[in-house]
Design brief:
This protein is α/β, with parallel strands linked by helices and 461 residues long. The chain is built from 16 helices and 16 strands. The chain binds 6-O-phosphono-beta-D-fructofuranose.
């Protein structure tokens, strides 16, 4: 295959704390390790003004090319348009979306800056794989600078229904940018359908069948590629985890009680206040579980400069304090709420110890925590996953206990059901989920996307 060039906002440069973050970064690091090539994006550093050229870090087989962003660019592009406009809109939270022309200009400016800095590093035969909502216009910018390479974009978030997208003043320009790629990849059929709806009814394009679309004079693929986790790794890690000190400390602290676990970035899309309310309802409705189960919510801080994220942090601190004050006892803390970050190998052990994994986002592109929880279970005595029907993962993990996160009664009932489910039923559901987790692995996702991309450019059939 030709050289692979991956572009994402976050770049996980080895040994660089500022640059490391998020499930996306982990997924891409693993994808690039096998192919080699370039990984281009923001360095994670904020400086007085944006860098005029990327910093190159050689780490064979990968060359990292990262750009420091100036405070104004960072505010308008990342905190502003990406995380206060596109993020809430793409997660169906229209009332939280802010439409600010200055931020939009900053978003376009940083995309143009990335294109100018990446262009000289490209060779004609490179395959370019772009990721996520921060850099939707990058492909069009690169084409403007004469890059005729094969180019695909994968959207890790949901793609909103047409009527929601129409609220964005710049929707037409963004949609048009998406059409300059050879492949636009989505997490679920739902997302692809929303995109195709837009193409058909707003862009006046055509859906040609066989995943092909024609709009704005271009023919390209719009296809579903559900992202997964590395095959076998989490299962192996969790098996080894019982030997770690963290595993034993958690076990000891539980004193024989059961554990329910949630692990999410502290983000309003993850449904954390709603989950706390559901847990409170669960304690009210099923008093037999009091002093028998603890709920541990790990919620590492995220996008802390964005006001909506500050607000949710305060809200959760209050809610967990209230539940503990009301239901706790001198020897039992109902909620363990932590904003600390844990290594994946430690989390694998925590997942394995938890009888219930609670993954109840209000909306989520995929949610790899759901898959990691499943993969970490002991096949002889697996825990049960309570999963929001609005997570992309619910399209695949249909054997989880699927819930509506807006309905706290439904979530409370599912918590009880998960804790009391027979071993036979747990094994049966887990076997089915594990089969899908293995089948739709990170490797499958990467290979299918890159294999399709290697066949570009596409012409009208
Ligand atoms: O999956 C969506 C996403 O925005 C990724 O692009 C990102 O790596 C992750 O969430 C974490 O968010 P952030 O980069 O804003 O910390």
């Amino acid at each position: 295959m030709s050289r692979l060039v991956v572009v994402s906002n976050r770049v996980a440069v080895p040994d660089d704390q500022a640059a490391r973050a998020g499930g996306l970064a982990v997924a891409l690091r693993e994808a690039l390790q096998n192919y080699g090539g370039i990984w281009f994006g923001w360095s994670g550093k904020i400086t007085a003004t944006s860098a005029t050229e990327p910093r190159i870090i050689e780490h064979p087989p990968v060359t990292y090319a990262v750009v420091d962003l100036g405070r104004k660019d960072y505010n308008e592009y990342y905190n502003g348009f990406a995380n206060r406009t596109l993020w809430p809109l793409f997660h169906y939270r229209m009332s939280l979306a802010e439409f600010n022309r200055g931020n939009y200009a900053g978003y376009l400016r940083v995309n143009a800056l990335f294109a100018e800095q990446l262009r000289p590093l490209l060779e004609p035969d490179d395959t370019i794989w772009i990721h996520d909502y921060h850099i939707l216009p990058l492909g069009k910018e690169l084409r403007r600078l004469g890059a005729n390479n094969r180019m695909g974009i994968f959207l890790h978030t949901p793609f909103p229904a047409m009527e929601v997208l129409l609220a964005l003043p710049s929707h037409a320009r963004l949609a048009r940018s998406l059409c300059s790629y050879d492949i636009v990849g989505f997490q679920t059929e739902n997302d692809r359908r929303s995109f195709n709806d837009y193409i058909l009814h707003e862009a006046r394009g055509e859906i040609l069948g066989n995943d092909m679309v024609r709009a704005y004079g271009r023919t390209f693929k719009a296809k579903v590629y559900p992202i997964g986790i590395e095959k076998g790794v989490m299962a192996q890690t969790s098996m080894m985890s019982s030997k770690t000190a963290a595993y034993r400390r958690l076990e000891k602290s539980l004193g024989g009680r059961k554990l329910m676990i949630g692990v999410d970035r502290l983000d309003y899309s993850k449904g954390l206040p709603e989950r706390m309310e559901a847990y409170q309802r669960f304690l009210e409705k099923f008093p037999q579980h009091r002093n028998e189960v603890s709920f541990m919510q790990i919620a590492p801080l995220s996008r802390s400069e964005v006001p909506e994220y500050k607000a949710i942090r305060q809200q959760l601190e209050t809610m967990s304090g209230n539940i503990n004050g009301r239901y706790g006892d001198f020897d039992w803390t109902p909620v363990r709420y932590l904003t600390k970050n844990f290594q994946r190998n430690v989390l694998a052990g925590f997942f394995r110890q938890a009888q219930v994994g609670v993954v109840t986002p209000m909306r989520d592109g995929m949610n790899l925590v759901a898959k990691e929880y499943v993969a970490s279970q002991n096949p002889q005595d697996p825990g049960m996953l309570v999963l929001s029907r609005f997570a992309g993962a619910a399209r695949e993990l249909e054997s989880a206990l699927l819930v509506n996160p807006y309905d706290r009664e439904d979530v409370a009932d599912a918590m009880d059901r998960a804790l009391t489910m027979s071993l036979d039923e747990r094994k049966e559901r887990w076997t089915e989920m594990m089969r899908i987790v293995d089948e739709q692995s990170l490797e499958t996702w990467r290979n299918t996307f890159l294999d399709d991309l290697s066949k570009a450019p596409f012409s009208t059939p």
